[in-house]
Amino acid sequence: MTTSKKDKATTRRRFLEAAAATAATAVAAPAIAQTAGPISMRWQSTWPAKDIFHEYALDFAKKVNDMTGGDLKIEVLPAGAVVPAFGLLDAVSKGTLDGGHGVLVYHYGKQNALALWGSGPGYAMDANMLLAWHKYGGGKELLAELYQSIGANVVSFPYGPMPTQPLGWFKKPVTKADDFKGVKYRTVGISIDVFTGLGAAVNALPGGEIVSAMDRGLLDAAEFNNASSDRILGFPDVSKVCMLQSYHQNAEQFEIMFNKDKYNALPDKMKAIIANATEAAGQDMAWKAIDRYSKDYEEMQTKDNVKFYKTPDSLLQKQLEVYDEVVTKKAADNPLFKKIVDSQMAFAKRATQWEQDTVVNRRMAYNHYFGPNAKKKT
Fold first, then answer.
1. How would residue 25 be classed by pLDDT, with cut points 50, 70 and 90?
2. Taking CA 370 as the corner, what is the angle to CA 366 and CA 372, rounded to the nearest 5 degrees?
3. Contact assessment for residue 368 and residue 361, using Cβ atoms and an 8 Å cutoff
4. CATH of 168-248+306-356, one of 1.25.40.10, 2.60.40.10, 3.40.190.10, 3.40.50.1820
5. CA atoms within 13 A on the CB side of 171
6. Nearest to residue 229, comparing CAs of 49, 61, 44?
7. Which phi-psi region, left, alpha or beta, contains residue 259 (left: φ > 0; alpha: ψ -120 to 50)?
8. What does the domain layout of the chain look like in residue ranges?
9. pTM above 0.85, yes or no
10. What is the rounded distance in angstroms from the CA atom of residue 372 to the CA atom of residue 183?
């Protein structure tokens, strides 16, 4: 079969037209992407703008914004800008906000098992170890199941291990468990049940409302979190007594939360950046906390005349006993609560034995270098 010159010309013309169309599409694609611009997200934290916790939220957003080269732009508003602090989960789930920064225990009213991410003794784990359980011990999957059980349309990233939190601020030093009887006290999560069990009249308030409540006499005592936050929020203005060490929030961490639909619509590359930025921000937060908390702890003693006292061991032991009673009851009423407790305890038994056997007690080294009998070093 032979092909005429006319057929060859027609075929060549069609080939050139197709090639031109392909080239035009290739040129147009970047133009379309460029026209679409960066993805913008409006977030809110659960913290006042002046709190170091809101600073942590801004730090996370900056890491993501920088690592995506501006392709994702997260704006973080302070608590109350769109919804109250305790309204963050609903707002993100419904899409009123694209995401947020807070703590899981603030959603305690939705599902009490959420408080197991930090509101309690952590079965002898610290916050970093609890995050290890979350990532490698099944916690991530359990949290997804937990949010699904309450119909929350969110993707959650726990991060940022917190140091052990103080027992709180009081009118006078606490010397025994009975000192809590009748005290109007602020706390959140499972700690509400623990301190109620100790005889306190508990009121759960967001961080930005605590000091004013103490100033007006609505609270006799309160706990929040750390030296920097407590100082910035004004605790030394309403109390000069702070009790250090407690099991009520021994292993807490922060939470990065996305609206699930908004998150799922992101490119896979951007999701990978978010996951890695979250872990980077968590480590950076831990380093910043050591620097800032130690400075404010020192300055509250030298400039604000605050007296710090160690919580008595008898009270710490009582906390553990009451916590166990609370957990036993809640586990009996909530199968998912029990499932999470069993998972945490199995991981904690292995991890804490390794830690206790391996990590040297640094108190001896502290006393050697800085204690009252330390020799002056040149």
1. very low
2. 110
3. no
4. 3.40.190.10
5. 11
6. 49
7. beta
8. 37-161+252-290, 168-248+306-356
9. yes
10. 36
Structure tokens at 9: 């010309």
Q: Which two tokens stand for residue 197?
A: 């069990």
Nearest residue to 199 via CA among 226, 221, 171: 221
How far apart (Å, rounded) are the C-alpha atoms in residues 121 and 252? 9
Backbone angles phi, psi at 259, to 5 degrees: -65, 130
Task: Answer with the residue of higher pLDDT: 124 or 373.
Answer: 124
Q: Which two tokens stand for residue 144?
A: 């997804």
Distance CA 275, CA 102 (A): 17
Give CATH for domain 37-161+252-290: 3.40.190.170
Q: Are 255 and 107 in contact (CB under 8 A)?
A: no
* Same CATH fold assignment for domains 37-161+252-290 and 168-248+306-356: yes
Of the candidates 251, 227, 243, 247, the one whose C-alpha atom is nearest the C-alpha of residue 355 is 251
